[in-house]
Write a structure and sequence with these properties.
Pfam families: KH_1, KH_Vigilin. It is found in: Cytoplasm. The chain is built from 44 helices and 49 strands. By secondary structure, the protein is of the alpha+beta class. The strands form 17 sheets. The protein has a three-stranded antiparallel β-sheet with strand order 4-6-5, covered by helices on one side. Strands 7-9-8 form a three-stranded antiparallel β-sheet, with helices on one face. Helix 17 packs antiparallel against helix 18.
């Protein structure tokens, strides 16, 4: 039930304020700078410890001279051994190689699939190795243990020992087992057989015939006796299950334990056969489970306490007879316990509608617990059929049933459940976005609404709750469905780049459109999907109007957001942007455009410009002019026939991109697609333009003559081998004739096609040469090289990262290092394409040579600087390691002094390992990174200018130069600013600070002139006119005269308006304000009384009607804001008296028409005033410890900018450009 607010003297008592602690209720997020916990990677298997499924493997073994069975029996190239090995090779599909040494030993190498290699090895040993025979005597009863199921054990033993084992058949009365095979295998097989026989000889088995009725005493309560015997003697006791017809108890295990257990069991059976008597009793079958108990605990307890066995009827029979067996003296006690257990629990049932179950249970079972306090003593089950089942003690069941049925009676009287049919396709509309609509219905009417799952395809929505709430919710759902069925949907295609502009900042623009068309829903596609479709759905009448309005907005935006791009060489970007973005901002402000630079890592060299078409063209012209001033950039026009242009542009401008890249990045612009112009523009440095001009003209000439195109397919990893070192190979093919060879770009979807362009004969020649190279690259070879085993770990370190790098760089060749168990620890195998293998081999030799000449030197760097060097996850140190191929190790923080070193402590020593020459260069680079500190004096009044708004300026200087700048606090009254970083970075930063100081001094005089102010007196009633709607008028004055205008705020009742700026501009602004006041004073004002009920009619939707009236008569109309006294008084003001009087007459006519219409419409309507419910008192919340409650004058709470620790790590800039930026 809903809780009610207590009433005191007829009014709701004021709720106590809720106190919240900001630090507890709004905890701070974890610091982003917290070190991430690295997860250990799972161990990788050794390179030689795993073979790819289906891959060939190789095995090798040696036969000594005295083990060879066919040695010396034949001569020549085709010996008996070779013939037999060839036969085995043919049978198993493997390759077998034989090699005989001078001492008579025979080396056998077998390669092929792993399973076949194992089979071939066994056969070769049988054929070539000397065979011997041995007999082993094993008792006949143990033979089955050696054979195993279907002979599997025997086969496994033969395969393992390479022998043949002959076990006599069961019909043969012999214990002799014959073993034939190599001496070593024969001995291992014999030892295994004897070991199995010895183990079996220690075991014994006993069988005891006992009637099934004695099994309960044999087992004991809860199998306690059997478990005790099994654990004590380590034996197995098998008692037949109840469904079995067998009555033999089997005991197996060690002989002594088996005999002891068998004696114990036989004694129990013999005792019960003498004294056990039986007694039968009939008890209702429904009560049997209470006698049995959970996991037969009831029967076990009776057996333990009385020694009487309780036998229950079979489950599949209808019998209710229970049999008790045991000592006659204890049968009575057992019977008493059986009756007590049977009558201890009863069951009952209640019929309750299924929808009430949830209400009876309540949230987390709270309602049910309140109805049935002794919930633990009675089991209540709510069935899907609607029934409620009770189980427990008789008195508990009766109380629970009565309480629940009383609650059911109350719910039946107050609540209801109804269903409404709604087509499944409309269910999502009933739910609303994020469940908002259905939640609103639930909250307003206090009901539960169950909407079926989509998979059921049901059209019934059920509503449960108070009868009145259910009725209202059903009505609202029906009204909503009727409205939705009257809806219309329309798709509009609008460029996706305009979607964000249509939505507006924070959804402001689209919300205005939604207010204009409240029944229409606008759905935009996901930003990650390349879709231009906007869906408009809503009332049929409004959808078309909304679509037209949206299309008009899109058209206006498209006109004001025209986009074009201009090619700018990347080396000029920093000059185009200017210091702090000054140049690019100036262009943006002058042209009112948005300018986007490409990403730093992008191959694109075009800057995008967005805005109105004429502004975009102006901005592009300025950018091109700036580039021309920075370098000798020229523009040349050449003539190329229109029919040839299409051939050159085709293929996604592939040819043009290749020419632009070849000629130093010039920009080539062809006429529009349907243009008849023959002029082609080339823009770039003079020499590059001349080169591109020649290439284009030659290409155009060839295109008109005998010209051909073709492609060659090659794997991407082959491209670098086709190109050759420094482009030597590909340039040789090109120079042999007039042919252009173009490899795929990074952005191309097809990364295998190499395009050829040239005369027909030259293209055919070049294609043939390329295909020959590719064919050679596709040939797979296997190379072997020797690498000292001590260097193997270097290639396998950190998950074999170095090895993978070599493989990736060389066409994914397979490099195999020998495993730990291999005999040859020096041979490394490389498989793959010939040139890739040779390249990988050369790389491995280079690394090994570096390690052979590896040295370790110590560089003294104070430990205080180590954190700075390792900042940003050690990125700069890693770059030095990668550049010089060395390893740099910093000492641990807890490292003690090194032995024999007195000049410097161990914590200052940084170890560099690698090639001697590389170590020296790395040491120099590392020392260059050690930060230094320099001090520059800056006047205190310039500190704030240097810091910038929100620290923007000083943060930019620190990021650009990768330094740390420490500005003293205000209370220190110090002019010294400390700059910390590398030598070059610190010097560059000092220059930037000096430039800022010069700029500050230049602006000082201008700031002084701008501080001039004057005060004018304007009556307060005219202030609102000067401010204008939403401050439009005063903002225009500020912008026009470049001044600051301060008007009284809040409850300040003063006529003074302060104007601050340049003196001439401030006086001009004051004159314009005074002119505005004079114009307002000269207006004709007339007041007219109009019935307040007609005001909405005169105003119209969103003020549409009143705006038209004001435009028609050239007047201003003001309506009262309050609803009290003077609510009917409307003010009309204007420059001309006649216009004001005409407008007043027009308004009175509108009032008369409205009142006449209102009287006719409402003369038969009885107006009933409904008493409005009093609003509930708002709850008060008091927050303590919030940031806005801190002392702003405290330097501890609000520290000054730049007062960072000079020893802290410098801020690392994200890059010269970072991601695409807009200025």
């Amino acid at each position: 039930m809903d809780s009610e607010t207590p009433i005191v003297n007829g009014n709701a008592s004021e709720p106590a304020a809720q106190v919240m602690d900001y630090t507890l209720d709004f905890p701070a997020l974890e610091s982003s700078g917290a070190p991430a916990v690295a997860r250990p990677l799972p161990p990788r298997p050794a390179a030689s410890g795993w073979a790819r499924p289906g891959a060939d493997v190789k095995t090798k073994f040696v036969l000594e001279a005295d083990e060879r069975s066919l040695k010396g029996k034949s001569f020549g190239p085709n010996t008996d051994e070779q013939q037999r090995a060839g036969k085995v090779s043919k049978e198993t599909g493997t390759r077998i190689e034989l090699s005989e040494a001078r001492d008579g030993t025979l080396t056998v190498i077998i390669s092929g699939p792993k399973a076949k290699v194992d089979e071939a090895r066994a056969k070769v040993i049988r054929e070539l190795q000397t065979q011997a025979t041995r007999e082993v005597v094993i008792p006949k009863e143990f033979h089955r243990m050696l054979i195993g199921k279907a002979g599997d054990t025997l086969k496994a033993l033969e395969a393992e020992t390479n022998t043949h084992i002959n076990i006599p058949n069961r019909d043969v009365a012999s214990d002799v087992i014959k073993i034939t095979g190599p001496r070593e295998g024969m001995e291992r097989a014999a030892a295994h057989i004897q070991r199995v026989a010895a183990e079996q000889a220690k075991l014994a088995t006993e069988h005891i015939a006992a009637a099934r009725i004695y099994y309960p005493w044999v087992r004991g309560p809860n199998n306690e006796l059997i478990d005790d015997l099994t654990s004590r003697f380590s034996i197995k006791i098998n008692i037949p299950p109840p469904v079995s017809n067998n009555e033999i108890i089997s005991i197996t295990g060690e002989r002594e334990g088996v005999l002891t257990a068998a004696a114990k069991i036989r004694a129990i059976v013999a005792e019960k056969e003498v004294i056990a008597k039986s007694l039968t009793v009939s008890i209702n079958r429904a009560q049997h489970r209470y006698i049995i108990g959970k996991q037969r605990s009831g029967i076990a307890e009776i057996l333990r306490s009385t020694g009487i066995s309780v036998e229950m009827p079979e489950v599949d029979t209808a019998s209710d007879v229970i049999t008790l067996r045991g000592d006659p003296a204890r049968l009575g006690d057992a019977l008493t316990q059986v009756y007590a257990r049977a009558s201890s629990t009863i069951t009952a049932q209640s019929k309750v509608p299924l929808w009430m179950h949830r209400l009876l249970i309540g949230p987390k079972g709270a309602t049910l617990s309140a109805l049935v306090p002794n919930r633990a003593k009675v089991d209540i089950d709510f069935d899907d059929s609607g029934d409620i089942f009770y189980e427990g003690a008789p008195e508990e069941v009766s109380a629970a049933k009565a309480a629940i049925e009383a609650e059911v009676a109350r719910l039946t009287k107050e609540c209801a459940m109804e269903t409404v049919k709604v087509h499944p396709t409309l269910h999502r509309h009933v739910i609303g976005r994020g469940g908002a609509l259905v939640s609103k219905l639930k909250d307003e009417h206090g009901v539960t609404i169950n909407i079926p799952d989509e998979a059921t395809n049901s059209d019934e929505i059920s509503v449960e709750g108070k009868k009145e709430g259910v009725k209202k919710a059903i009505e609202e759902i029906k009204a909503l469905v009727a409205k939705i069925e009257n809806e219309k949907s329309k798709d509009l295609i609008i460029e996706q780049r305009l979607h964000k502009l249509i939505i507006g900042q924070g959804g402001k623009a689209i919300n205005e459109l939604r207010k204009q068309f409240p029944s229409v829903n606008f759905s935009f596609p996901d930003v990650n999907k390349k879709s231009d479709i906007i869906n408009v759905r809503g009332d049929r009448k409004e959808v078309d109007d909304a679509a037209k309005a949206l299309q008009k907005i899109a058209k206006d935006l498209a006109e004001s957001n025209f986009q074009d791009s201009v090619p700018i060489f990347k080396e000029f970007y920093k000059h185009i942007v200017g210091k702090g973005g000054s140049n690019i901002k100036k262009i943006r402000e002058e042209t009112s455009t948005r300018i986007d630079l490409p990403d730093e890592n992008s191959e694109e060299e075009r800057i995008a410009v967005t805005g109105k078409k004429e502004n975009v063209e102006k901005a592009i012209a300025l950018l091109q002019k700036m580039q021309s001033e920075l370098a000798s950039v020229v523009t040349v026009e050449i003539e190329i026939p229109v029919k040839v242009q299409a051939r050159m542009i085709g293929g996604g401008r592939r040819v043009l991109f290749d020419i632009e890249k070849e000629c130093g990045g010039v920009y080539i612009k062809f006429p529009a697609e349907k243009s008849e112009s023959t002029k082609v523009t080339i823009n770039g440095p003079k020499e590059d333009v001349e080169k591109a001009q020649k290439v284009l003209l030659d290409l155009a000439k060839d295109r008109e003559a005998n010209f051909a195109e073709d492609t060659v397919k090659a794997k991407p990893e082959f491209h670098r081998f086709i190109i050759g070192k420094g482009g030597a190979r590909i340039n040789k093919i090109k120079s042999a004739g007039n042919v252009r060879i173009m490899f795929p770009r990074q952005a191309d979807a097809d990364q295998e096609s190499i395009h050829l362009l040239g005369t027909k004969d030259e293209v055919v020649r070049a294609k043939a040469e390329l295909e020959a190279i590719i064919k050679q690259l596709n040939e797979t070879v296997e190379l072997k090289m020797e690498v000292n085993a001590k260097y193997h770990v270097h290639f396998k370190r950190v998950g074999a990262q170095l090895l993978k790098e070599i493989q990736d760089q060389n066409g994914n060749v397979v490099i195999s290092f020998p495993g730990k168990a291999a005999e040859d620890q020096r041979t490394v195998t490389i498989k793959g394409i010939k040139q890739c293998c040779e390249s990988a081999k050369a790389r491995i030799e280079e690394i090994v040579d570096d390690m052979d000449h590896q040295v370790t030197i110590n560089v003294e760097i104070p430990a205080v600087h180590h954190r700075v060097l390792l900042s940003n996850r050690g990125q700069r140190v890693q770059e030095i390691q990668s550049r010089h191929n060395v390893r740099i190790r910093f000492p641990r923080r807890d490292a003690g002094p090194a032995e024999g070193e007195e000049a410097a402590p161990a914590e200052d020593q940084v170890a560099i390992s690698g090639r001697d020459s590389a170590c020296e260069k790395a040491a120099e680079d590392l020392k260059a990174l050690v930060p230094i500190s320099k001090v520059i004096e800056v006047p205190i009044d310039a500190h704030r200018f240097l810091i910038g708004r929100g620290g923007e300026t000083i943060r930019k200087i620190m990021q650009d130069n990768d330094v740390s700048i420490n500005v003293p606090k205000d209370e220190a009254q110090s002019e010294e600013i400390t700059v910390s970083g590398t030598v070059e970075a610190v010097d560059a930063t000092l220059e930037d600070i000096r430039a800022k100081l010069k700029e500050y001094e230049e602006q000082a005089e201008d700031r002084k002139l701008r501080q001039w102010s004057m005060t004018i007196n304007v009556p307060t009633e005219y202030h609102q006119k000067i401010i204008g709607i939403k401050g439009v008028t005063v903002n225009e004055l500020r912008k026009k005269h470049d001044v600051n205008i301060s008007l009284p705020k809040g409850e300040e009742r003063t006529d003074e308006i302060v104007i601050q700026g340049y003196e001439d501009k401030a006086r001009a602004c004051a004159a314009e304000i005074e002119a505005m006041v004079e114009a307002i004073r000269s207006l004709i004002v007339s007041e007219v009384v109009l019935d307040v009920r007609c005001h909405p009619r005169i105003i119209g939707a969103r003020g549409k009607n009143v705006r038209k009236i004001m435009e028609d008569f050239g007047v201003e109309i003001k309506f009262p804001r309050s609803e009290g006294e003077g609510a009917d008084l409307v003010t009309v003001s204007g420059k001309e008296e006649n216009a004001v009087l005409d407008c007043v007459d027009y308004l009175k006519n509108l009032e008369e028409d409205f009142l006449a219409e209102y009287s006719e419409r409402n003369q038969f309507i009885s107006h009933r005033v409904q008493e409005q419910p009093k609003p509930a008192a708002a709850s008060k919340v008091e927050i303590r410890g919030a940031p806005w409650q801190l002392d702003i004058s405290s330097s501890a709470e609000f520290p000054d900018m730049g007062a960072a620790n000079p020893s802290a790590a410098p801020v690392v800039a994200a890059g010269a450009w970072g991601a695409a930026r807009r200025f």
